[in-house]
Structures are given as structure tokens and as C-alpha cells.
């Protein structure tokens, strides 16, 4: 019973989130199915998120396992969970103030979002592949519904169905892999796999098959080319707050789970798989960047940019996979995800602010004159974009720096080379919105809806990007120490 | 092993090959069929293939976890089917179509 | 007075004059401007005289006053002081510069009084004097180069003084750029010498110069001196860089007198004389110098035959005379070169000022075909011009005679000399006599062809006084260097000139061996030939242009195309612009268009197009069809698995 | 001290951004920039020019995990460039008094950030810190060109940014790679300190391209070469210059280009001496090509600003040669020429800006006879022109001469080619002067409806310091060169195993 | 033994054929029925592998619940025409079929190579404790489910709740089938 209690304490963030997710819904039910004020909904859910984050900080990170070794609460869990919770919280603030998500179904939407976060927390802590799968599905299924629930009528439905079909397809592939791993290794617990994974992958084709399938399944979730094709469509079609949710929190936790699998070191045993992943990383970076270059829709540009960032992060994941001490590579991934989440959140948040109604599609050229009307927000967007482009001393630069140093230290110089070349390409499309905002005349402005929360969130993330950029050393040390 | 054994002696590999074939059929369905509902059915096929694989491994390794997984997979497959069909209904209401060729507004 | 302070005052006085006039450059108070400028130069002149006297007091070997004001550039072994030295050579130069300069300043007050930019004009003149003094006093090649470029700058400013006329501004630009070509070579020459000897101090260079002559064309000294000589061809208007000087006549006439006749253009000769210790061990360079000098002397003289612009005639005459000087230094007659430099400064300044007086009188008319018979109206100008004429055509005992004779004799007799060089010299002298007489005849003598509306009048005293002084100098200037053969006859007047320069000039042995008597005879006979021929030539010209109307046209017709060619200055300018300048500009346009716009930028665009093309390709893959996407996933899985399994 | 020098402008920028009064912004900015200049004079006062040691060192750990520290220091190589930066900014602010009329606050804030970034890249002794400043300097410049620039400003600013960024990305990789090598010399820990980089002995194989030192050399060199810009990579410069507002051009030409050449001296040559020596010919050849090419192309430009921009290419060619001949003459000359170019080209751009304010055109063919209308302006322009074409007694001469001397002692052929720049330089500048100032009055000059006023008092105040510097530096170069001589001589003598010594008391401090 | 063998081949044949039919049938209703057939035969295969509980669940969940759902939705759509059952475009179609073919080939190859070739029996590769199956399946299953995998079980509960709320919300959302506005 004691162990049970300890286990429950460990999973308390998820429980707290789940319980808090029920509150607005229950209130709505008790009120006779009448939507209460969204403000109260968002406040309750944010309290829940804070509580979850607090519990995660208090109980997570001890390195303990729970529920027969199905979940582990170590540094990775804690960091990734926090990043996910915080960026998801930000996304929820956006939902609260975006015309496409705010409305009669707001408490349901928030319920789905919160449970999606529960799924995320499961995903970041799961070390059992089947639990991973459950977490993944809990997260994804909520997400499909959230996308489809947009007030926008056609595009978001299309995005949801695309995401759903392809996601299920990838899930099936992933599961098939799990079954092979189970068959060949007798267990699906990553911690148990650790010792003999490297041997198994050399000797057992079935295991290798399984691990490859699992890897590719993750590649889909984190939108690595050629499994990326859903990303631009879904990011564009989904309501912007949900896009922000996907691009930050979902990606973070998917990478967390990916990292856990990779940390079993199968790559050391299979140079080929490792090579394939490297090539995927290169293709992803390139595809993401070159395609973003020719986009006119701002959200789509950001979606492709998100793909290219996945490529960069994959470099870190590979590094973590092949190095003896995976903490360096892993912490560079965590750091990058932190940076990436902040800046991507910020960029989408501003897009969300500009959206006048649920159906509006923001083109890059629509930003003209934004700097005159909203100097502060324009400045923040500039910070986000420059950070995404990797201009020092912003957080994004240090993220890239740590990633590439990790890669170079493991001899993956060519990946780092591709990375920097791609960053140079990326500069172009990151600068273009800035050009339009500052250097063209126009009358772009935020929508008339209230936007206090979003603005605060934007400013906070911009400040964090600057401050954490300057203080990146201690932060990185913290991350690395917690991952040791 | 003698050739005859392949037919007369049923081992794990037989089941696994069956699972692989079923998986491939499902995959082909996802790739080729245009009807959204049939697409979803094909995904169910794939999941069933996975289930066969799990059970096979479970049986041949004597580990019960395999069956637990199948249990989970089934639940999730059902959930997926529910969500998928809900989405299908909602998209049908908008587009009056379930042919996926009509869902190509997002592209480029 | 302290000698260093004297040098400082000598240098600073014109500079201060420049500033005083420069800050109030819009003023039209010509008296004030002129007085400031003239006084500044006069102060310098006084300093020069004092320095000269100081120098005289010193024993011949120690006649060298140096002043190091500060260290200018000091990097590693390369140390250049703002150091100035007054020695036998430079003392003469500063006397000429400040003396003639002062006279020309004085003349300018009268000449420029109606000009709106008079104050600016005097500021420039003073700046020029300052730079010229730096040029001659600088004790290292680099300090000399400072002045060298500085006078070029002033020349540029003064030639383009009436900048509203595009042609005049272009002439200034042409002068500067042409000079720059020479300067570039000069810089290289400095490098060669510095790398060889480790110093640029001219005194030290002369000391360090090897004692054995270099026979190789590629020896350091030969190359270095050759480069310096190319520099000199720019500054001193020799083939092939002489083209700027005739154009430089666009400037005010006193400027032509000061800069383009008396002082600046002689800088090349001065430089070679200063470095005679070095040049003398580079016989190949010497030979080139002599040939170029002789060729220039003849060619410029022929062009001078056909010109009708009074200043152009004088300009070609200057080029020709400078050729003489180069011929002199080329055959090792450094003293003679310097001598001719000085006498030329006197009579050419005189003639330019005289022409200025004429132009002034003729209300800016420069075409000699529209003059004639001006003797009546401009008696003083005519008289002084006449003396100058005698001097330049080398009539004894005028200044030009002695110096020219010395050069011709050296060209014949020195070990570097050659009979052809001598012949060229004589030919030059004959031609000079001809065209100078032609100029005299057309301008002052014969019938007046002056336009009715123009009423020539004699210039004010401000202008005539300098003329008179210079005329006197043109007469007596040569007497300081009377050759031995003559002085022996007329009472052993010592050759002050040679005596003075002896310690700083290295001599070449004369070639003509044998008895002293034979040599004397030879010298006399050569002298006779040249003077006689010149006289005949002058007489011919006189007759042709005053007595026989139309004779000149007939002669011109007789020569036909040759005349046209010469009249058009051998089409050198045209050749330069067709062969060098236009191709350069057109080529540059193409360079810009093809390399920058079409190659580099296009390449950049190609890269971006490639990236964009990649983007479009990826975009085209993104069809929106989810089965397509599923197919990508399938292909990705297949490829990855194949690769993983096929290891 | 040095931190104050770097961060004061950032504080200024923040104050500027929030300054409530619109009409006093310029005064405030001018005051701030003067404070900064005075501060830098104080720094100069403390600077000990007799030693090659690193002075006024400030070092605090920043990112310990990678041995990255906040490490500032100044020595002879950087001191004068720092002074140039602080000297030019007040002049720029005063010079742009009227020409910047929109978003004045933003402009000055950007200018101060730019100043901080430039100073930072001159003073950083840590690779990453340096990189941060190096990249940071792009951003304000990007805005200055992009917001306050001419009609094709967006094209120009993007070109500028992407060119420079592409180069520096490779450099980042090279820095990371070098950091991985440092444990060899530091006793096991990674370091990004330049001083540790200097200690590295990276293997070099002559003739083989794919060896570490060669690759690192080129990674760094290309990044800096783009900034300089070296011949085939120069096309961003004319565009950026033409489109940039006057102050932007001045900063760009005056200081930013120097960042490239400075870094050659600070990074490339001492870090990869063998490679630098072995491949010096490439850069010297490119320098020579740059000189001639820049001059020829400048000659035929129809736009004054573009002409000056190409002249920058030509001048930077000299500097490049001076650096890569790697002897005392060349390097000293190059360092000096950096200052000269900063002052004279800066002044040229200011002058062009002044006339542009009056006529709104930079077409050479539309001018002519300006000298008669604006004599003071003409005087200033001609003086600066003389400095630009290196007439003796102006600053340009000293640098150019020393560079040519250095080039000659490296190879006479190089000097022979480079010296053509002397002629061509005079040709294009004087031809331009002739067409703009002399001759009959041009289309824009004779128009009566906007009488061309001569220089205002403000403009005179802007130009006089520059003109004073032109002559001061030309006549007393030692006053300036003495600051850098010790460091340069030390560098030239010890380039094969270079390491900046720390002055004794600082060495003690570091031991503690 | 022969009965087992025969049973396997028989079930395998049915599974494959009905599976193929799901994909190949032009009419979605037929596809759905074929899918039901597949489900049932898979359940039978589970039985041959002694997973009786799962076989039951399979029948109930899939054939019962899921299939009904599918058929119901199909009825709801009331599709009169199916213009094009399969994707058009030869190149992509061929590419798709090829990739599926290669993939199945790879899987089959890997499985057979991994399990039977190289002189190893499948038992060695499948880390087997005791081949021959689990004795007390349902008990073992429930222990594993409710003790060992309790977390996953609970999470699935949450998942189902979420699905329920979500689908209802979706149908009631703006533009949904049961929208209030």
C-alpha cells in the first residue's frame, strides 16, 4: 500500500490535471449544460496546470519508477513535462482569446486540452512501450478532437481528418514495432531493454525490425521527413491556439519519448539505422527550410519552420543515441525544445492575436504596418523570429549552439554542417515577416477581441528568450545535472 | 528444416507471416482506398495484424503481457474508431463527401 | 639665426600664407590677398638667401644643413623623419622657387585682380610653394614624395582653377591622373631602393650607392632608378606622359609660368640630380633617360612648330626644354642639367609671364594668328620677351646659351653620350630657334592682325617689374657657369656653378681622349655648329613670318599630311583615349555588367533559385492528398528498413 | 571599464526607446554618444601602448559547461578600432540630424545597440562572446538599412543579412570544432577563450585541403571575407550602401567592414598561421583583384554612393593585402588603413548624404558645377577625396604606402599590381569630382526652385573633426600607430605560436 | 496436430481473403462486412493461440461494437455513388503498391530469416520462458491487467472518458451534427 501511495504521489500531476479538467465540465453540466464564463474556465484550468507543474517539480525528477516500472520520474520527465505544461498553458491562454476556439464549447475544449496534457505527462514519464502508446493516443485523440472542434468550418475538419488518418496509420506502424520488440526481447520496458538492446539489434533481425518501426513511428509524431507531410496541412488548418499547442507541447513530449527510446542505445549497435536517421535529419532540415522559403501563409511558414527545427532536434537525439554519455546530447535536446517552445509559442501567439475571425488566414504580407500599430508586439515577434533564426544572444542561438556542439563532440560534423547551412537558408524566411512588419506600410493590427492574457504571455516569453539566452549556461548545467 | 515442415508444422513464423500479410493489406487499403470509412477499416485491419503478432509472441514466449497489450490495443482501436467516425461524420456534414480526394484544400 | 628655425620659417611661411588666404577664400580683395601671398613667399625667399649664405660659409664638403622636425612614419625598419636638408642642390632650387615664385606672385596681383577667386588663387599658389619647398628640401625620397604629390595636387587645383569650364577641369584631372601613373612607379622605385639599401634618405642613398656600375637591366639600382625616372616622366612631362602639360595651359598664365615652366615640372630633373650617385651606377637607366630626353626634346619642338596658341607653343617648348635637361642628366651632366633647369626657369618664366602680359593686353586672346605687331603697344613686354627669346634660342651670352651648350657638349663627350644624342640636341635647338622666332614674329613683329575691338595696352608695373627682373636674370643667369673653354678666353672667370655643385655630383669620365687642345677645339667647333644652325634657323623663321607673307602656308602645304600630323600633336592624345582610356571605361562597364551583375549576382541568384526551386519541389509534393502523405510514410519506412536490413 | 564601454550604449538604447519626448531625442542621443566617446578617451588614457599584453581584462565565467566566459580585453590591435567606433557615432548622430525623420527613437536605439555590438566584437576575447556580438551587430544594421533606407532597401538589407549570416554560420561551426580541441591545451576542460585557442596547435598539411587547419582557416576566413568584403563576395556591399541611409552607410563603411579585417588579424592569422601563410596568396590575389576591380567598376558607376561603395571594395583590397603579407609594414599599414578608411569613407558618405538631403538625387550626371554654388561643401569634399586617394599628408597615404611596402617585401609583383590602384583610385575619384563639382552647372544645380545652400553650421561641426583627423593622422601617424605598434610587432614576430601575453598584474589576477 | 495445422491454414486463408476483400470491395458496406469476417477469423486465430479471453473480447468489441459503428455511419452517409474506389494516377498507384509489396516482403523476410533460418528455432529467438502457452490465461491476464498494468488500465479509462466527452462535444460544436446554433 505504501508503494501504491508513493506511486500515486508520483503521478499526482496527472491526477491533478485530470481532476481539474473535470471541474469546468462538471460546472457546465450542473448549470444545465449552459456554458459558464470562459474566464472562470481558464482560471480553473490554469490553476490546475500550475498545480500540476508544482507537483511535477516536487515529486518528479527523483529518478523513481512507479507502477511496476512503467513510469519513471527523472530529470527528463521533469523538464519535458514542465516545458509541455507551460507551453500548453500558454496555448490555452491563446484558446481563451482566439475567436476560433472560444465559444460555447470552451469548457469541453479545455477539458480535452487538459487531458491531452495528461497524455503528455504519461508520454514523458512512460518507459513501458505500451504505456507510451497509451499516452500517445490519449494525447493525440484529444488533439484530433480539439482541431475538429474549431469554429472554422472546413479547413480545420480537413486538418483533423488528415491528422487522424495519418496518425492512426503511424500508430499502427509503431504498434507493430512494439509487438516485434516484445516478441524478440520479451519485454517492452525500455529500462529492461537497456542492457541487451545493443546486442539484440545486432543479432536479432526481428528486434531490429521492431525498433526501426518504433523509431519511424516517433519520426511521424515529431514530423521528421518523409513522415512530415501532415505537419504543414494540420498546422495551417488547425485553429492557431491548437497549432501552438501542437507545435510546442506535443512536439516536446514526442521528442521526450523518442529520446527515451533512443537512449536504449540501439543506435550504437546498428550503424545503419543511425545513418538512416542522420539522413532523415538532413532531409528534414532541408525540406523544412526550403519549403518554408516559398510559403506565403504565415502559419504554414511557421509549420515548415517547425519541421526544420525537428530536423535540428533530431541531430541532438541522434547524438544522445550514439554517445556513451547521453546526458549531453539529451540535455541539448531538452534545452533546444525549451527554446523552440518559447519562440514558436510566441510566434503563433502573435498570429493568433492578428486573426480577426475564425476563418482568417494570415499571409506574411498581411503583417505590413504591424510595427507602427503595435510596436511592442512587433518587437516581440522580431525577437521570436530572430531567435528561431538563431541570432545570438537569443535563446534560439544557444539552443543551436548546444545541439551542434553535442553533434560535433560526437563526430557528427557533417550533420552540424548541414544544420548551419540550413540555418542560413532559414534566415531568409524568418526575416521576411520582420521586413514586412517594419519596412512596408500597411494597417495590420490585432483583432478587437480582448488580448490581455495573450499579450502577457507573449511578453513573458520574449523576456524569457532574452534572459534565458544570456543565462543559458546555468540553465544548461541544471538540465544536464538533472539528466545525469 | 525440411520443406514439408513449413506446411505441416505450424510455428510462430506462420502466424507472424499471416500478421505481416494482414498488415500489408491494411496498409494497401490506407494507401489506395478513397472512401474515408474504408480507410478507417483498413487501419483497423492493420491493428488486427498487430494483435495477431502480439498474441503469437505472447503464446510462443509464454508471457501474458502480450495479451495485455492486445487488450489495450483493442480498446484504443475502438476509441480510434469512435473518434475517426465522429470526425468522418462531422466532415461529411461540411463537405457532403467522404471521398478523401475532396479533402485537399490544405496543400502546398 | 638658428638654421633649423630658418628652414621651419622657410617652409611655414607660405603655409601660413595659404591659411590666411584660405580661410577668407571668398574675398575679392586682390591687394590684400596678393600682399599676404607675396610677402609669405618673400619671407621664404629671404630665408632661402640666408640659408644659402649659411651654406656658403661652410666648407664645401660639409655644406649640408639638416632639420629633423619629427618622426613621421616609423614602422619596423622603415623610419622616415619629417626631415629637410639644404645642400648645394636644394639651396639653388629654393632660391629659384622662392625667387621666381615671389616674382610670379607679384605678377599675379596684376594679372588676377579682376578675378573673383583671386584670394583662392593666391592660397593655392602659396600652397604650391609650400609643397614645392617640401619637395626640394625633403631629405628622403618619401618626404620628397610628399611634396611631389602636393605640387601635383596644387597643379590640379590651379589648372582647374576656372572650373566652370569643363575642359579646364578635365585638364586638371588629366594632369593629376597622368602624374599619378608616374607616382605609382615612383612608389615602386622607392620600395626597390628601400629594400636594397634599407633607407630612403637621399644623402645616405648616394653614399650607399655601389661604386661599380650595374650592367644588368634587372639590377636593383637600375630598376629602382628606372622606376623613379618613370615617376619623373610624369612630373616633368616626358614621353610618354607629357600629354598633360600642354593641356595644363588651361590654368591662369602665371600658374603656367610658375608651375608648368619654372618649378614643378623640373622636379624630375631635380630628383635625378639629387640621386646622381645612384643614377650614375645605372648606365642603362641613364641611357634610357638620355634617349627619352632627346626624343622628347625633338618631338615637342616639332609640335611647337605648328601651334598657334601662344601658351601651347610655350608649353611644347617647355616639354622640349625639359627633354634637354633629361638629355643632360642622362648623359651624366647633372650639373649641366641643373644649370639648364635654372636658366630655363628664368627665361621660361619670363616668357610665360610675357605671354600672360600679352594675353592680358589682348583680353584673353591666345591665338597668335590674331596678334602681330604688338611691339608698339607692349614695349616692355616685347623687350623682355625679346631677351627671353635670345636666351632660349641659345644665343651667347644669354643664359640659355651656356646651359644648352654645356648639355650638347656633354651629350657629345660624356661616356654616356653619343653623337646621335648630340645631333638630336642640335636639331632640337634648331627647331626651338625656329618656332620661338615664329612666335616672336607672329606676336610682336610684322603687321598687326589684332581684332578691331581689342585695344592692347601695356600691363601695369606690378606685372612689368617681374618681367624686367626675370629678363635680367635671363641675360646674366648663365654667367655663373661659363664653360672653361670660354672662360679661358675671356679672363678665367671661375665656373661658379661647377665649383658649387662639385661635392655633391659624381662625374663620369669624358670619352673623348687626347690632347687638351683637341678637346677645346672640338668644343668650340660644336658650339659653333649649334649656335650657327640655331641662328640660321631663327633667321629663316624671321623671314618666313615677317617678310614673306604666306610662305609658312606654302611650307605647311608642302609637308602635307606630315604637317597635319604634327599640328594634331602626333595624335597622341587621341591614341591614348582610343587605346587606353576608352577601352578602360568601356571595359569597366562591361566588367561591372558581366562580372558583378551577370556572374556574381547571377550566381547568387542561381543559388537562391536552386533553394527556391527545392522549395517549389517540396511544395509540389505537398499535394494535400492524405494518401500521398501516407505513401511518403510508406516509402520512408520501406527505404529505411531496406537500408537497415541490407547492411 | 570595457564592460561599461559596451553596455553603456545598450543602456542608452533602452533609455532612448522609452524616452517620452520626441523633440529632444536627438539631443539626448548626441549627449549619450559623447559620454561614450569621453569614456573611451578615458580608456585610451589608461591604455599602455608600450606592451603587447592584453589589458583591462575582465573575465567571468559565463557558460562554464563549455568554458565560455565573459572575457573582455583590449590590446593594440583593437584599441584604435574602439576609438574609431566611439568617435564616429556622435558624428553620425549629428550628421543624421535631419535626414532621419521617421521613428527617430528607434533609429537611435538601433544605432546604440549597433555600437555596443561592434565594440563587443572588438573587445571580446572569447569565441562565443565574440560570435554573439558579431551576429548581434547584424540586427540593428538590418533595421537601419531596412527601415530608413532607400527604395530597394528590402532587397539590399536582406542581401546584406543573408550574405553575412551564411558566412558566420560556418564560423560558428568552426568555433565549436575548435572548442572541442581545447582540452589538449587546457588540461582537460573545454574552453572558448581566445587565449586558449591561440595555444592550440592544429595539424596542418600543406597542399591537402581536407585537413583540420585548412578547413578551419577557410571557415573563418570566408566568414570574415564576406564582411570585408573580398572580391567575389562583395556584391552585397554596393547594394547595402546605396540603399542605406547616410548614417547606415557611415557605420557600415566606417566600422562594420573593419570588423572583418580586424578579425582576420585577431583570429585567422594567429590561429591558423601555417594555413594563413600557405594560402595567403589566395587572399592577396583576391585583394589585388579587389583593388583593381573595385576601382574600375567604381569608375563607371552612375551613382555617387555606389561609386564610393566600390571604392570601399578597392580600399579593403589594400587592407587585405596588408594583412596577408604578414610583415610589420603590411600589418601596421593595414591596421592604420582601417582607421583611415573609416574616417575618409565615412566622411564621404556623410558628404554625399548632405547633398542628397538637398537634391534627393545621387546621379552623377545630374550634377555639375556644384563648386560654384557650394564652395565650402566642395572644399570639404575635395579634402576628403584627397584622403581617399591617398595624397601625402592625408591619412590615406600612410596606410596605403605601408601596405604597398609590405606587399613589395612580400612580392614585388603584388606591389606592382596593387599600385595600379593608386592611379585608378585617383582616376575614378577625380573624374567623379570633376563631373559633380566642376564644369557647367548640371540639371540639379541650376534649378532655381531649391537654392542649394552651402554647409550649415551643424554640417560644418560634423565635418571638421573628420577633416582634422584626416590631417592629424596623415601628418602625425605615430600618435596613432604607437598604440598598436607593440601588439602588431609582437604578432608579426610570433605569429607561428602566437599568444597574447597578459600583463603581470592581470596574470596574477587570473591565477587567483 | 493435423487438425491444428488445418485450422491454421483455413483461418489464415479466410483472414487473408476477407482482409483483401475489405480493401478490394468497391462498396463500403461489403468492405465492412468483410472486415467483420476478418475480425471473427482473427478471433478464431486467437483461440488457436489459446488466448480465449482475447478472442471473446475481440468478438465483442470489434465485431460487436466497432463494426456496428462502422455500418451505422455508412448508413448515415447514405452514399449513392462511389465514383472512384481507388486512387487514380498510375505512377503513384504503382509506387504505392510497390512500396506495400516491398514492405510486406521485408517483414516476411525478416520474420522468416529472423526466426527460422540460420539453424535456430523460433524458440531461441523469441525469448521464451516456456513454449506452449500460458496455463491459466484469464487469471494471469487479470492479474497482469489489474496489478501490473493498473496504470495503463486507468489511463485507458481516462482515454475513453475523453473520447466520449470529445465526440459529443464535437457533434455539438459549431457546425456539428447536433449544434445548438
What does this 3D model show about the protein?
- With 484 residues, chain A is mainly alpha-helical.
- Chain A has one domain.
- Helix content of chain A is 78%, strand content 1%.
- Chain A has a two-stranded antiparallel sheet with strand order 1-2.
- The longest helix of chain A is centred in the middle third of the chain and has 31 residues, at 155-185.
- Chain C is mostly helical.
- Chain C folds into 3 domains: 1-139; 162-513, no CATH class; 576-645, no CATH class.
- Chain C has helices at 3-23, 30-57, 88-111, 118-137, 141-159, 166-197, 202-208, 220-235, 244-247, 253-262, 267-274, 276-279, 283-306, 310-330, 334-361, 379-392, 399-413, 419-443, 461-476, 484-490, 496-501, 516-547, 551-559, 561-567, 572-621, 626-645; strands at residues 64-75, 78-87.
- Chain C is globular, with a radius of gyration of 30 Å.
- The N and C termini of chain C lie far apart (98 Å).
- Chain D folds into 2 domains: 1-270, no CATH class; 279-493, no CATH class.
- Chain D has helices at 2-18, 25-46, 76-95, 104-123, 127-136, 138-148, 153-181, 183-186, 194-199, 212-227, 236-243, 246-271, 273-278, 280-299, 304-325, 328-359, 370-373, 375-388, 395-410, 412-418, 420-437, 443-446, 457-475, 477-493, 504-511; strands at 55-63, 68-74.
- Chain E has a domain at 1-86: Four Helix Bundle (Hemerythrin (Met), subunit A), CATH 1.20.120.1200.
- Chains A and D meet through helix 18, helix 19 and helix 21 of A and strand 1, helix 5, helix 6 and helix 7 of D.
